[in-house]
Each structure stands twice: as structure tokens, then as C-alpha cells.
Amino acid sequence: MGSSLTWRVITRRPFGFCNRSPSGGIVRRIVSEIEAVEAAGATGAQAIADHLNAKGVTSCKGRHWTALTIAKFLSSPGAKHYRTGGECRE
């Protein structure tokens, strides 16, 4: 007479992570785009967001970038993993 219920804890994944692991391809591409913009001299979060949106690069959820999402992304574990002193690491 007992029912079998399966409980799943649904949590939000850290910003910059997809499917419970760093989505290396997406995060790596975004980090390299950000570093290219920074190398060109644009360091503001809005300038970086404008560049990514102009190139058609979307977030993990497929959304456009804003200055706030750039700031969150750069402080995320996924982005920090690939940035060390401004360089991507494998």
C-alpha cells in the first residue's frame, strides 16, 4: 500500500556552470571573448556586454548580456577556473 516517491532537490547551479559541471566550451569561449575586449582597451562591464551581444554570444540560458550578468559571470567559479591573471588555462 506504500507509494514510492522519488524526491529531488532542485537548486540553482552557480553562475557560469551548466548541467552540474563547468560547461568548458561555453565558459571558455565567453572568457576568451571577454579577454579579447579587455585587450582592446574596453574594461567596463557594459562595454563587454555590448561586445558579446553584438557578436551574438548568449549566456548559458540563451539570454543577452548586461553589465550585471558580466559582473556575476566574472566572479563565478566557472570563469575563475579559466582566468588566471587574465589568461585562459586548460
Secondary structure layout:
Elements: E1 17-18, E2 21-22, H1 24-39, H2 45-55, H3 67-74, H4 77-82
Antiparallel strand pairs: 1-2
Short description:
By secondary structure, the chain is mainly alpha-helical. It has four helices and two strands, in the order ββαααα.
Write a concise keyword list for the protein shown above:
46% helix, 90 residues, disordered C terminus, 4 helices, mainly alpha, globular, two-stranded antiparallel ribbon
Written description of the protein model:
The chain has 90 residues and is mostly helical. The protein has a domain at 29-82. Helix content is 46%, strand content 4%. It contains 4 helices and 2 strands. It has helices at residues 24-39, 45-55, 67-74, 77-82, and strands spanning 17-18, 21-22. It has a two-stranded antiparallel sheet with strand order 1-2. A hairpin with a 2-residue loop joins strand 1 and strand 2 (21-22). The longest helix is centred in the middle third of the chain and has 16 residues, at 24-39. The termini are far apart. The model is unreliable at 86-90 (pLDDT under 50).
| SSE string | EEHHHH
Measured as a percent range, the helix fraction is: 40-55%
Read across the widest sheet, the strand sequence of neighbours is 1-2
Q: Structural class per helix/strand content?
A: mainly alpha
Q: C-alpha Rg, in Å?
A: 16 Å
Number of helices: 4
**Distance between the amino and carboxyl termini:** 54 Å
**pLDDT below 50 for ≥5 consecutive residues: which ranges?**
86-90
Proportion of strand residues: under 5%
Give the overall average pLDDT.
75
Which overall shape is indicated by the principal axes computed on the Cα atoms? globular
The largest sheet is: 2 strands, antiparallel
Give the total of beta strands. 2
